[in-house]
Write a structure and sequence with these properties.
This protein is of the alpha/beta class. The chain is 32% helix and 27% strand. β3, α3 and β4 form a beta-alpha-beta unit.
Length: 418
């Protein structure tokens, strides 16, 4: 099973269901599974027509329908997607473009100011497609996204499906703990992780995606898992608008890092005791929110209890980019507060001096062009997580420390105190 198979199966089952919704100013725009997959095929065929096969292709931009169509167009063919953090300084982005050996780039409108610097500093880039409007650029390497779609429309040739063990994506870890590492995840890694999260919802379930789209947690669990279920994934256009957009899109399910939960709870608790909780929850959450999945950092169980008072179940999980990313998770019908859930069915756990070790079909191939770091993290087939933990008598995983001297902030960022 590949991501391409999962998406094509969803297209067959849910063709008329809305796959994506987003805001353009105050208007809600939408695209069905049939329309989404037609655009994904155009991107994939366009890349082939432009001579990109077996290439590394970077993406820099905020969450957008064009970004996700581009990402899926890359990974459903024989190319490798390299999603980069749009919030990084330009010099860091050019360094990662060069280190990943990217031959092409999809660039968002807000990063248009970086265009000249990227062109000057990244000689390996043969092509840049602007995901939204095109800034003034004299360089023939720069084209609008629509031109790639047009190339796909005029080409009858489609890329062959990738192989199970082919690298699908390279996701860079945050570089606050030294040089950022490019995690190589295969087609099988991603597809197995999507399948192993044993969670189902009715087709048309509304999800609001609020995490940065380059994060493995967002990419795999919002987008790939959401699409496998026939969900409607709505794009949050800004963290500042998150609560307002809950009212606009009225989600059933959301993924958040603990910092977001803490921020929302401050708003709830500031409302005062006289407003009925049911009324307040409908106003803040949009009226339909039942479940929030959280991960990326430790969540104080206090928030699980408090959100339950407002009719929202908070389910904590655990993962890392190196595991595609989910290792364990609490599920609606199988959870324990304070734990990070049971390990997924495709995960084998072991413990060495308290450190959590992971083996399974979602464990990365290695770090891109970093053999020493790969050998340090992957030993005898086991991935060393750097986290300390234990399994309780019911098989739920708990974390109780770090092996390395590392602080994990509530927004999910890793920071070394040195």
């Amino acid at each position: 099973m590949l991501i391409r198979d999962i998406l094509e199966e969803s297209e067959g089952k849910y063709s008329q269901i809305k796959a994506v919704k987003w805001l353009k100013k105050k208007e809600v725009l939408e695209e069905s599974y049939g329309e989404l997959m037609e655009h994904v095929r155009l991107v994939r065929r366009g890349l082939l027509a432009e001579g990109f096969e077996g290439a590394h292709i970077a993406l820099i931009g905020a969450s957008s329908v064009e970004w996700i169509e581009s990402y899926l167009g890359i990974i459903t063919g024989k190319n490798v997607a390299v999603p980069l953090d749009a919030g990084l300084p330009c010099e860091d982005l050019t360094d990662l473009i060069n280190r990943s050996n990217a031959a092409a780039l999809f660039l968002g409108a807000k990063q248009g100011a970086f265009l000249e610097e990227i062109l000057a500093s990244c000689p390996k880039l043969k092509k840049i497609w602007m995901l939204q409007e095109l800034p003034v650029a004299s360089d023939e390497r720069v084209s609008p996204f629509a031109s790639l779609m047009a190339a796909g429309k005029h080409s009858a040739d489609d890329s062959l499906p990738p192989a199970y063990d082919d690298v699908a994506t390279i996701i860079f870890t945050s570089g606050t703990t030294g040089k950022s590492k490019g995690v190589m995840l295969t087609q099988g890694n991603l597809a197995e992780n999507v399948a192993a999260v044993n969670y189902t919802r009715e087709p048309g379930t509304v999800m609001l995606s609020v995490l940065p789209i380059h994060h493995a947690f967002c990419l795999v669990m919002d987008w790939l898992k959401g699409f496998s279920l026939g969900a409607t994934v709505c794009i949050n256009d800004s963290l500042l608008h998150m609560v307002k957009n809950m009212s606009v899109f009225q989600p059933d399910v959301m993924l958040m890092v603990p910092l977001m939960l803490e921020t929302i709870y401050k708003k709830l608790s500031a409302a005062g005791p006289l407003i009925p909780k049911k009324l307040l929850a409908a106003k803040v959450f949009g009226g339909n929110l039942k479940i929030i999945f959280t991960g990326g950092a430790h969540l104080d169980p206090f928030y699980i209890d408090k959100f339950a008072d407002y009719g929202v179940e908070v389910l904590e999980g655990y993962g890392m980019s190196e595991c595609s990313p989910v290792i364990s998770c609490n599920l609606p019908e199988d959870h324990k507060a304070g734990s990070i859930g049971r390990p997924l069915s495709n995960v084998e756990l072991s413990f060495a001096d308290g450190e959590i070790l992971v083996k399974g079909s979602s464990v990365m191939k290695g770090y891109y062009e970093m053999p020493e770091e790969t050998a340090e993290t992957l030993r005898d087939g086991w991935l060393h997580t750097g986290d300390k933990g234990y399994l309780d008598e019911d098989g739920f995983l708990f974390i109780n420390g770090r092996v390395k001297n590392l602080i994990i902030l509530s927004n999910g960022e890793n920071v070394s105190p040195e």
